[in-house]
Amino acid sequence: MPNNVVAKTEYITNIEQLENLTQQERVELKKVTNKFTFRANEYYLSLINWDDPNDPIRRIIIPQTCELDQWGRLDPSDEQSYTKLQGLEHKYDSTALLLVSSVCGGICRYCFRKRVFINAQKECLKDIDSAMEYINSHQEITNVLLTGGDPLVLSTAKLENIIRRLSEIDHVRIIRIGTRMPVFQPSRIVDDPSLLEMLSKYNNQHRAIYIMTHFAHSNELTDLALKAITLLHKTGVEIANQTPLIRGVNDTPKVLAALLADLSFVGVVPYYIFQCRPAIGNKAYAIPIEEGYDIIEQAKAQVSGLAKRIRFVMSHSTGKIEIVAVTDKFTYLKYHRAAKDQNNGRFFIFKRNPKAYWLDDYEEIIRDYPADQPYRSHGPE
pTM higher than 0.70, yes or no? Predict the structure, then answer.
């Protein structure tokens, strides 16, 4: 096979194809996949220990009937409110987001963009020319995030067309590629030298490319995945990891600490840990905010400084909110990045609510400090 030809991956999209499930399981889970798309491949499925009903990889990729429980919304972060044209979001002044693909190498059961797989024709970028015109006309945009779906599902030629055009806009200084392909299908990187050459070409002294990976558990850091990471590093791109905190996957201090440490050992920066968004079907995967904070802090206590660079945040409709601290009475939150610039740094103190999964679940606010009046005390009187 020529070096520039990538072997086609066979995707599994019908739950009835999974021979490791019983017939009864396939019947029950068909009710789920009739509503929410299922997608996997042989490589990722091979990571599952089918003898362990609590296997974390199984929980990530195999549907569960609890997804049919009534909870959440299709667009929990109100991305549609910030959509300037189909497939282009502009929520934060310096950052534009392009939904360039409606397909992933696999679909995580806790995905917050289920709507993309339900109605891709409405969500994903169609008019690249208009998107480039918008970005070019907004000089405050210095960062562009390519997401979807997964940008690396696109052919290298299609991806390069987007990156090349962005690189021609002088004020775009960072191009981020949000991808789970190093996890779901590392062969996409290992077997395609043209992808690596393209990344190397456009990552230069004038513009940086960041690969934003999504490793959720150390079991995903296989030898093949590590080879993909090594090859990406050789192109000069930066690699950072973000993952939600997920019940049954990485929700113990020991497991989460192992993930943070293992990422740091291979030069992948732990960047964000997200509060699982209240997307429809996600209740069984979500963890209350205050419980999540305790898990993360205990995990951070077990790793080096290089492994604990993560921030615990929620992507709320009004901005990215950091969970700063939790005491026996209060929960402290701050806008890490607000949709409205005047709210950047705004600080909140709420009365604790152990049942809170999202900012909207906090009702009793103790204090609200505007961004221009930073909180300097040790706690409310």
Answer: yes
**Mean pLDDT within 88-94:** 98
Q: What is the pLDDT of residues 7-40, one digit of tens each?
A: 457 899 999 999 999 999 999 999 999 999 999 9
**Confidence at 379, pLDDT banded by 50, 70, 90:** very low
CATH class of 11-317: alpha beta
177-214 tens-digit pLDDT = 999 999 999 999 999 999 999 999 999 999 999 999 99
Q: Cβ contacts of residue 40 below 8 Å, gap of 6+?
A: 11, 12, 61, 62, 106, 107
Looking at 62-66, 99-103, 316-320, 377-381, which range is the least confident one?
A: 377-381
- Could you state, in order of their start, the residue ranges of all structural domains in the chain? 11-317
Q: Is 378 buried (19+), middle (13-18) or exposed (0-12) by CB count in 10 A?
A: exposed
The residues, any chain, with a CB within 8 Å of residue 241's CB and separated by 6 or more, are 212, 213, 214, 215, 263, 268, 269, 270, 271
Radius of gyration of the chain (CA): 21
